[in-house]
Design goal:
- A hairpin with a 3-residue loop joins β2 and β3 (53-56).
- This protein is 11% helix and 50% strand.
- The chain has 202 residues and is mainly beta.
- It is globular.
Length: 202
């Protein structure tokens, strides 16, 4: 009797989970990341702790132009659950133009009580159409026939560092870590189903 009742409920939950994944991607809600514009791109930052994922609180966000080609973004309040929760903490995002079509991006973050795990920088504004990898299984240039199918990450068997995102025959973008500390670095490009555009994750 109980088994007969549980099977339809389980089938319904699996069907709902599939629809949510198709609509929103791996995470089914909007973080409400405050993006800042720089050099025709948009940047945001997130902090992952042992308990939560935070982005800067929109109300405490301060944007300072430190020079004609550099920007500093700071905050002292962190937001989570799409703006429903806030807590003290610090985030800093530095963006600078190095000339020759190169950008330098760095981020730091801290939480007063929770163990910090990772910092994530999100970049929008690059019209990703394909990526290049030297790994044999990636077969060189991999074109995304459908923008919604964009999903590539490093480290993985399908991508090598740096990742090259080809946008037009005359333009391509790549990401490369200059961090000198021995720790895990990751790069990814996915399709944001909420804003319907590619987002590059560092």
């Amino acid at each position: 009797m109980k088994r007969n009742i549980l099977l339809p409920i389980l089938s319904f939950l699996i069907a709902c989970a599939g629809n949510a994944t198709a609509q929103f991607g791996p995470i089914g809600f909007d973080f409400k990341d405050p993006y800042v514009a720089f050099d025709n791109l948009r940047f945001a930052v997130r902090l992952s702790t042992e308990n939560n994922i935070y982005c800067p609180d929109q109300g405490s966000l301060r944007i300072t132009k430190t020079s004609s080609d550099a920007l500093l973004v700071t905050c002292d309040i962190l937001s989570s659950a799409g703006g429903q929760l806030s807590t003290p903490g610090k985030m800093e995002l530095r963006i600078a133009s190095l000339g020759n079509s190169r950008l330098s991006v760095s981020a730091t973050a801290s939480h007063p009580t929770e163990l910090c795990k990772t910092i994530l920088v999100l970049i929008k504004g690059i019209e990703v159409t394909s990526f290049v990898s030297e790994y044999p299984q990636a077969k060189g240039v991999n074109e995304f026939k459908n923008r919604a199918s964009i999903m590539v990450s490093y480290p993985s068997r399908s991508a090598t560092m740096p990742l090259v995102f080809v946008t037009t025959p005359k333009e391509e973008w790549f990401v490369l870590s200059k961090d000198k500390e021995l720790r895990r670095k990751g790069f990814a490009c996915v399709y944001d189903h909420l804003t319907k555009e590619p987002v590059i994750l560092l």
